[in-house]
From TrEMBL:
Domain Fructose-1-6-bisphosphatase class 1 C-terminal: 199-332
Name assigned to this protein: Fructose-1,6-bisphosphatase class 1
Annotated region (Disordered), positions in chain: 322-343
Gene3D superfamilies: 3.40.190.80, Fructose-1,6-Bisphosphatase, subunit A, domain 1 (3.30.540.10)
Residues noted as binding Mg(2+) 2 in the record, renumbered to the chain: 114, 117, 281
Main location: cytoplasm
One GO process term, biological-process aspect: fructose metabolic process
Name of the gene this protein is made from: fbp
Reactions catalysed: beta-D-fructose 1,6-bisphosphate + H2O = beta-D-fructose 6-phosphate + phosphate
Amino acid sequence: MPYDRQTLRQFLLQQYRTHGVEKDLVFLLEDIATACREISFAIRNGAFFGQLGSADTTNVQGETQKELDVFANDQFVGHIRNCSRVAALVSEEVEEVIWLKDTVAAGDYIVYFDPLDGSSNLDVNLSVGSIFSIVQLPEAVEVGDDKSVLRPGTEQICAGYSIYGPATTLVVTLGHGVHEFVNHLGTGEFRIVSGNMRVPEDSNEFSINASRYGDWDQPVRQYIEECIAGESGPRCKRFNMRWSGSMVVDIHRILTRGGVFLYPVDQANRGSGGKLRLMYEANPMALLIEQAGGAASTGEARILDVVPTSIHERAPVVLGSRTEVDRIEQHHRKEHDPAVSDG
Ligand SMILES: O=P(O)(O)OC[C@H]1O[C@](O)(COP(=O)(O)O)[C@@H](O)[C@@H]1O
Ligand SMILES: [Mg+2]
Ligand SMILES: [Mg+2]
């Protein structure tokens, strides 16, 4: 990788100069990047090889925590708490809100994160990642008032993810486009590899866990059947399918070459409102996709407009190329009003 490429710090300082991004947010993002580098280092060094099994603890989702889930969570908490402007943390791996300050002022930050995404891929050495979202409080709140961290995705000022794959990448938005960095093992620096990522409007690639076909509602089933029908079907073109088992990997592919990612609510997960979590999976990915020109929906409404009622709530997720998301939303509308045309 050429050394002349901008480092993460140079990029963030440029955002500070050109877009008035706060210096404290620059430092917070550097702390998050450090946590990601530590997690990547541990994975690469096989720190958990032979221990990739469970940590014999269960998280609030009822999932058995992996050793690496706990390690990754500790890295995030440990590095983020360096920033004195962070009032509270919401982690997939911790049931309650983690309050970090004695008093919380307007302008303080809340950080929501999924310390290790794609945990089921760990045992088989496939790419996993971390996801984060930052909100700035418009007003002072009471420490311990957990309801005050239930902010809609529209209030995010920053979102991103890291992938621990063949390379360690960090993808972020501060509200001015989406930018990709790769970690240079020699120097440990994140250097920019792609500024202003764009999701192509059209696509012929969908991403869904097809083993749940039998559980899908009509609108999703119709959309997938149209894709699979290929040239002789209503879409008159062939579609390809990809499903990695790690949301970070599937969304990165869509930010890189387009496509649509679906994890809908279905017969089997309706009771819990879907599979993926709104605050630290759906919201950050929705902001990134929208910032890159794509669309992000529950199938019925814009994900970023969803008003959360609990910190670990789940949501149906449809993200990616605008044409595909619009079509899936149209199938949902038609289910409520048969008069709606196929278009
Ligand atoms: O096991 P399934 O149904 O394929 O679900 C895979 C999805 O679950 C997740 O692994 C959930 O995330 P966590 O690993 O953080 O719990 C997503 O990354 C992925 O998109
Ligand atoms: Mg996850
Ligand atoms: Mg996780």
